[in-house]
Specification:
The protein has 318 residues and is of the alpha/beta class. Helix content is 37%, strand content 21%. Strand 1 and strand 2 form a beta hairpin. The longest helix is centred in the first third of the chain and has 21 residues. Bound molecules: S-adenosylmethionine.
């Protein structure tokens, strides 16, 4: 400690600043030079948290081809749902500067286990999407669950969204490549940023079903996320969310949601997923941390009355 302090004191303030700046540039250079993980599921290397668990192994992936050095195509299948198959393009090249300093980039890193579990859940409950209008929020660079519904569940319409433009740009070729599997389902993608001041014009009140994976840990956006969900959902619509607890963030989201929704939390929602979870706890206990890795299922249904907050606002105005 003492020698460290002495070294610092021996530097002029300007040199200290340059030294810190140089360190930042070196770090940035390292990140820019680094390639994204070429496997489809999450890799530890590029994620900000210390998480090392990659997937529950509910879906299988086969590497197909690449368009260029910046991406890879994978075929996703599911042992338990044999007729299912989709081709997914995953970004694998080095991260650009705009990704590092721009909008939240967690959806361009990998397919997270909550998205894997959401996909598996949707495949196993395909009938609940038949002839429905479906929207995925925060789907990341693959919108895997939404595209799987489009390819497999005979939905009426599927809108795949994320707030990150790079993610949504990657979803366009995914839609194109899987087009022949959609049947009469209309599939589109667009950038949707969660914003409590946005009325979401053409799509307000349009969706029977909204899905979302691993998007609850942005505490500063929870209210915005609840607003967009409430606004886009039909009065009798249903929302399926999968997310790990991540401290008290999931709990906090549910607390906020009770203002506008009937909130149902289920931890053990599927025997296969539960067994995978117990196995991971036992066999991978050095890397598997329930709080960070196990996706809890939250179902939201709109309350029939106006949300509490809107009552308060109206009372204040009156
Ligand atoms: C952890 S990633 C999850 C991505 C994907 N659902 C998955 O599980 O693989 C969180 C996603 O939320 C999106 N996101 C974060 N804040 C957002 C906001 N304010 N508006 C819209 N999307 C946002 C990010 O762009 C990112 O794709």
């Amino acid at each position: 400690m003492a020698s460290g302090r002495k070294t610092c004191q021996s530097l002029s303030p300007r040199r200290m600043v340059m030294s810190a700046a140089r360190q930042r540039w070196r770090l940035l250079g390292q990140v820019l030079a680094r390639k994204r993980e070429s496997r489809p599921f999450r890799s530890e290397k590029h994620c900000a948290s210390t998480r090392k668990f990659i997937s529950f192994g509910l879906l299988s992936t086969t590497h197909l081809d690449t368009d260029d050095e910046f991406n890879s195509w994978y075929r996703y299948t599911c042992q338990d749902v044999t007729e299912f198959s989709v081709d997914i393009r995953q970004l694998t090249g080095p991260m650009g500067i705009e990704e590092l300093i721009g909008f939240n980039n967690t959806g361009n890193v990998c397919v997270w286990p909550s998205e894997e579990v959401l996909t598996y859940h949707c495949l196993k409950h395909k009938n609940s999407f038949r002839n429905k209008t479906v929207c995925e929020l925060g789907g990341g660079m693959t919108c895997l669950a939404g595209i799987s519904i489009a390819a497999f569940c005979e939905a009426k319409e599927v809108l795949l969204t994320d707030g990150n433009e790079i993610s949504v740009k990657n979803v366009h070729p995914i839609i194109k490549r899987n087009h022949s599997t959609f049947g009469s389902t209309k599939v589109t993608t667009r950038v949707i940023k969660w914003d409590k001041d946005n009325k979401y014009g053409d799509i307000a009140g349009y969706f029977d079903h909204i899905i979302c994976a691993d998007c609850l840990f942005f505490e500063q956006f929870q209210e915005d996320l609840l607003h967009v969900i409430y606004t886009l959902l039909k009065p009798e619509g249903l929302v399926t969310v999968f997310a790990p607890c991540r401290g008290n963030t999931l709990e906090q989201f549910c607390e906020m949601a009770i203002d506008g929704f009937v909130v149902e939390r289920t931890d053990n929602y599927d025997q296969t997923v539960w067994e995978k979870h117990l196995q991971a706890k036992e066999k991978e206990h050095d890397i598997y941390i329930e709080d960070r890795h196990y996706p809890v299922m939250i179902i939201l249904r709109k309350l029939k009355v106006t949300p509490h907050r809107l009552h308060v606002q109206a009372a204040n105005q009156g």
